[in-house]
Design a protein that fits this description.
The protein is of the alpha/beta class and 333 residues long. It has one domain: Rossmann fold (3-Layer(aba) Sandwich). It contains 16 helices and eight strands.
C-alpha cells in the first residue's frame, strides 16, 4: 500500500505481516472476517496524520501471516497472544487497541487480560459480551438454527471449498451482502446451495470499495485460502470453555463502540449492545452510524476516523502526555 511501511515480524511463534503508518502513541488495529490489515487503509493514513503510530497486522491465518494447520491453533488466547507478542516484538510498551468484527472480541479480550498493555479499547460491529451460561453456538443449536452461518462454518473443509471455488465472486458477494447496499438485511442463513450462493451479487457499484480493492482482497484470499479465517469460527465452543476464568469480568478502561444501523448482525448483538454500560463501566460512548452496514471503517471512513481521533486524543494521547510530564519532572540523578 503506497506510502505505508510493510514488514514481517516473528511473534508468538508465527510470522506476522504488518502494515503501519505514522509516529507517536501506538494504536493496534485488528481486522475481522474476511478482511486484512488492508481493511484499515483509511484509518492508517488518518491516524498517522493525526500524530499516531497506526499498526495493522494481517491476523493469524490471513493474508501473508502464518496460517497454522488445525483449528486448535486459533483460540481466543492464541489471537490475543499474537497481539501481545506483536507489541513486544515492536518494542511498544502500550497501545490503544481497536477491533472490527472478529477483531472486536480480540480487542475486548486483550483489554480484559492485559489492561497494562491496552489502556484504552474501541470495538466496531461486535460489542463486548460477558461469557454466558452456554456457548453462543449451543444457543443456536437449541433454537434449531443449524443453517446459521456460524454453525454452517463448523464443518471442516466445506465452506472453504465452496468459497475458494470462485474467490473474486466470494469477496464481492460477501462485501456487498453485509454492506448497507441491499434493500433487505442478510438473514445469516446458508441454504442447501452452499456458502457462495448464500451471498448476493452486487446490484450496483460499491463506492467505498473499488475494483482495485476487490482485486487486492481476491489475490490475498486466492493465495492463502479461507481455512485459517474459518478456523476462528471453529473455536467458538472451545473459547467458551477456555474463558471460564473471565466470567463476570468487566472492562474498566476507557472504551468506545461503533456500529452501523444497517449492519445485518445488529439484531443479533442488540442485547450485548444495550448491556454495554453495565459490562463495560469504562464506556465513554457509542456511535451508531446511519445508513452504514457491517464494513463501517470502509463504508464510512471519514465518520469512523473522526470518532477514532477524538476518542484517542481524549484518552490515549492524554495518558501519553501525562507519562511524558511525569518523566520530565523526575529529579536529576
Amino acid at each position: 500500500m503506497h506510502g505505508f511501511r510493510e514488514y514481517t515480524v516473528e511473534a508468538n511463534g508465527i510470522r506476522q505481516h504488518v502494515t503501519e503508518a505514522g509516529e507517536g502513541p501506538a494504536i493496534l488495529l485488528c481486522h475481522g472476517f474476511p478482511e486484512l490489515g488492508y481493511s484499515w487503509r483509511y484509518q492508517l493514513r488518518a491516524l498517522a496524520e493525526a500524530g499516531y503510530r497506526a499498526i495493522a497486522p494481517d491476523m493469524r491465518g490471513y493474508g501473508r501471516t502464518t496460517a497454522p494447520r488445525g483449528a486448535e491453533h486459533y483460540t481466543i488466547f492464541h489471537l490475543t497472544g499474537d497481539m501481545v507478542a506483536l507489541l513486544g516484538a515492536l518494542g511498544v510498551a502500550q497501545a490503544g487497541i481497536v477491533g472490527h468484527d472478529w477483531g472486536a472480541p480480540v480487542a475486548w479480550t486483550a483489554a480484559q487480560l492485559r489492561p497494562d498493555l491496552f489502556p484504552v479499547v474501541l470495538g466496531m460491529s461486535v460489542p463486548f459480551a460477558r461469557r454466558g451460561s452456554i456457548s453462543s453456538l449451543d444457543k443456536l443449536r437449541r433454537a434449531g438454527l443449524d443453517a446459521f452461518y456460524q454453525l454452517y462454518f463448523q464443518t471442516p473443509d466445506r465452506a472453504e471449498r465452496e468459497l475458494e471455488a470462485d474467490v473474486p465472486a466470494a469477496m464481492r458477494r460477501i462485501m456487498w451482502t453485509l454492506s448497507a447496499g441491499p434493500a433487505s438485511l442478510w438473514s445469516g442463513m446458508i441454504g442447501a446451495e452452499g456458502a457462495l450462493a448464500a451471498f448476493r451479487e452486487p446490484e450496483h457499484a460499491m463506492p467505498w470499495l473499488s475494483d482495485a480493492d476487490l482485486a487486492h482482497y481476491s489475490a490475498a484470499f486466492g493465495a492463502a485460502g479461507f481455512a485459517g479465517p474459518l478456523n476462528w469460527y471453529r473455536n467458538i465452543d472451545r473459547n467458551w470453555s477456555l474463558t471460564a476464568p473471565l466470567a463476570g469480568l468487566s472492562i474498566t478502561q476507557p472504551a468506545w463502540f461503533i456500529i452501523g444501523d444497517r449492519d445485518p448482525i445488529l439484531p443479533f448483538v442488540k442485547p450485548a449492545l444495550d448491556a454495554l454500560p453495565e459490562t463495560v463501566p469504562g464506556l465513554l460512548g457509542t456511535t451508531v452510524l446511519p445508513g452504514v452496514g457491517h464494513w463501517v471503517q470502509q463504508e464510512a471512513s471519514d465518520a469512523v476516523n473522526a470518532v477514532l481521533i477524538d476518542f484517542f486524543d481524549r484518552t490515549l494521547r492524554s495518558k501519553a502526555d501525562s507519562r511524558t510530564a511525569r518523566r520530565g519532572c523526575r529529579p536529576e540523578p
